[in-house]
Amino acid sequence: MPDPDAPAVAACQFEPTVGDVNANVEQIDQLLGSLSDSIELAVFPELCVTGYDVDVAEVHAAKIPGRLTDRLIEVADFHGTTLVVGLPERDGNALYNDLVCVTGDGVAATYRKQYLWGDEADRFATGSGPVTVETTVGTVGFVLCYDLNFPEVTLAYGRAECDLLAVSAAWRESYRSDWRLLCRARGFDGTCYVVGANHAGDQRGRVHAGGSLVVGPEGDILVETGDGKTTVAESFDRGRIATARERNPVLETRRARET
């Protein structure tokens, strides 16, 4: 039986206002305010701080830590929740599509997208590899949208025995079935939770699929947005991970073969 006192995780989706950072951070704040106090980790969509537009992302990109993350740290501190949020990073002359993990104490981790989709490759530099961070719900790894298509990305997280993958996306409606399939596959492959946050709505001609979800470590969808829901939450149960890894011992088998 799940532990009733277990922490919970949430996937949050919304339709950002392209180019209005203040409005988008306010949306993040409001969504967090709608969640229960048991939520310890909340995941938000790709580039949601600026809206998904490469030109706009380039204009608003900032150093990390910096003006974009300072606002998010304040929000995380107020709600007492660890946030995983998509935003653009400026590092010298390089522009990156990032996920940042922030708490009330500051930036805990920064992940740069490894596989760039379409015209992203014309502007963004490529991230160099996986990033993990220790949180109150365990070891978390990061995945950004198109990264989800590449099992080798999440294989690295499997080797690190991640408990949860935070997946942030701007996944289009025309690929909705792929989104659900790949989130489930990555949970099953890694015998870990997947918290997938996707954009909703229409941004400059891109119709997004929504469908934010939490996948369990056996690859089953535990909760999913629908019927107007903008957030979904699920308890984080380490017992479920242990059961999944006993039933599907891929991590143990891989480790044995590689030693």
Automatic annotation (TrEMBL):
Record InterPro entries: C-N_Hydrolase, C-N_Hydrolase_sf
Keywords for this protein: Hydrolase
Gene Ontology molecular function terms on file: hydrolase activity
A Pfam family this chain is assigned to: CN_hydrolase
Domain CN hydrolase: 7-238
UniProt keyword Nucleus present: no
Identification of the protein by name: Carbon-nitrogen hydrolase family protein
Organism for this UniProt entry: Halosolutus amylolyticus
Organism lineage: Archaea, Methanobacteriati, Methanobacteriota, Stenosarchaea group, Halobacteria
